[in-house]
Amino acid sequence: MPLHRGVYAAAHTAVRPVAYRFAAVLACGPGAFLSHRSAGEAWELCVNHRSRHEVTASGGGRRITTVEVHRCRLHPDEVTVLDGVPITTAARTLLDLAAVLPPSRLEKAIERAELLGLIDLVAIDAVLRRAHHRRGVSALRAALRAFRPEPHFTRSELERIAISFVQEHDLPAPAVNCSVGGEELDLYWDDARVDLECDGWATHRTRTAYERDRARDRKLQAAGIRVIRVTAAQLRHERDEVAADLRTLLESYSAASNPPEACSGGPPGPSSA
Q1: Distance of CA 15 to CAs 18, 41, 69, Å?
Q2: How far apart are CA 216 and CA 220, in angstroms?
Q3: Of 82, 148, 191, 228, which one has the fewest beta carbons inside 10 Å?
């Protein structure tokens, strides 16, 4: 069965997806690699609905109507083999996807890469340095901001950032590090039943922390306390948006009846004057 010019599937009744990918690479000759959306699908980063596979090959080469060929010389560190198919690395694939996908789909691809353990910031930075001003560089840099290691903040430093944030935006003064229902809350507005928790990625990325936080949040919400979690990055880069959302919550929730257990054991919050 012919798949491409000079490439055939012999003695096969059903050709697997990996065979179609390999055939597309073979059709483009030596030095060709599966890339862009086809590579993204192979790495399980995105779904590819295009009818033709995408391959990156160096040099001029012949025109192949059954394959979408991108002409570019790839660095040796940007290519590998996956399931027997020559392919761009996950890092290079993300750059190529950044050039052809809208921001929302690129962000989902990056989230998938993180979930699959394919995010290698060292390799990605090397790809970006070599790419210079190629299409996709700016989009990938922007999409990766949330995945950059944030500065390590101790709990007290995170709380100071949060208190400064409250004062800067003239929000009502919360109680700080107080105890409610046996749980210690970071910043708590008793009259509105709102708890603001300041999370650092380094201390919340384990399975134990994941399970503990959700059990804690469930317990508090069952007691009528709304738990809001923000990160250090959000307090630094999205201050106005977080403040607007928090202000809306504080104005929406009131303790007109059945007030929660009073906050105890923590120092008073800062003045909002």
Answers
A1: 8, 17, 22
A2: 6
A3: 148
